[in-house]
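Justification of computing resources. Each target in the renewal requires a structure prediction run like the one illustrated here; the chain below, 89 residues long, is used simply to show the kind of job we budget for.
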Amino acid sequence: MKYLLAIITLLIILLQYRLWQGNGGIEEIKALQLRLDDLKAEVAEKKERNEILYAEVEDLRKGQEALEERARDELGMIRDGETFFQVLE
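Resulting structure tokens:
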């Protein structure tokens, strides 16, 4: 009877160790869950950025106003008949 009790106690200890510390244990699952949450947040940020970029691309494809605005701001272009003024501070 003593041997059986010792074997059962040893098995319980081993199973508890595997549950808390072993491969696929609770600590590893918590760490993986935190990593998954971080990745989900990163994916949400990337999706939002992609939606903004997609909207900008669609605006550039369909409308001349966005194209003109971009040419003025980024390239410093002006239309025929317009006068360019540069303000120095």
